[in-house]
Structures are given as structure tokens and as C-alpha cells.
Amino acid sequence: MAMSVSTGGNGEPMVDMNTTPLIDVMLVLLIMFIITLPVMTNSIRIDVPQADGLMTQRAVINLAIDYEGTVLWNGTVVASPAQLEQYFRTEAARATQAELHVYPDKRAKYDHVAQVLGSAQRNGMRHIGFVGQEQFLDR
Prior knowledge:
Layout: E1 3-7, E2 13-17, H1 20-36, E3 60-65, E4 71-73, E5 76-77, H2 81-92, E6 99-104, H3 110-122, E7 128-130
Parallel strand pairs: 3-6, 6-7
Antiparallel strand pairs: 1-2, 3-4, 4-5
């Protein structure tokens, strides 16, 4: 690097470093790094099921849970958790499993809903979804 030494008007030497070569080297390095960086690719693997010609419509089970914890299976009151588990086991054993649409009441306790969902999962239900979520929006 070159340094320029000159005398100012008042007799003192003026020492300035010439930064032009330093800036040139930095720009060349920057361009080299940009060129040599690999192209960033973001890919997410999604396993999409393939249709086999005919689309089969799944049966739907409407499971309502009211604010007292009472469970309704397609409109029929379920007497006990054991009976509900038996319903789940029967549906899970079928060749084409039905979709379970859960309608929890806005005032239902989380514990009641969690117990029903846990029972469904333990007994092999795979197609579970919540319906009626618009009641939980604060307006």
C-alpha cells in the first residue's frame, strides 16, 4: 500500500493512506464470494396421495361435545367413555375409515375435548378434524 507524504501549508507533513487499492481488492473478493456461493434451494418433500381413478367419498361421523362434557355420536348420546371407545374401535377396523368431525362447544372444558381426542387416537382413528371453529372468533 502506498502512502502519500506531503507538506501542508503550515510546514507539517500530511500523512494520508491511499485506500483505492484496498477498496479494489475488497470489491474483487466480494464479487468472487457472490459468484462462488452455491445457489440456495428450498425444497419441501410432500407425499401427495395418488388417485386410483375413482374418488371414494368417506363417511362422516359428527361428534359433538357440549359444555357439560356430554358426547353425541351422530346426534345420539354416548352413555360412557367405554361405549365411545367401542365406537372408535369399530370405525377404525373398517377398510375405509370414516372422517371424524369434532364439534366442541365454545363453553366445553378443554379436558373433555382432550379426553375424547386421546381416546380416538388410541383406538386407531386417523382422519380427525375440527368443525365449527368460527364460534371461537372474538367479535
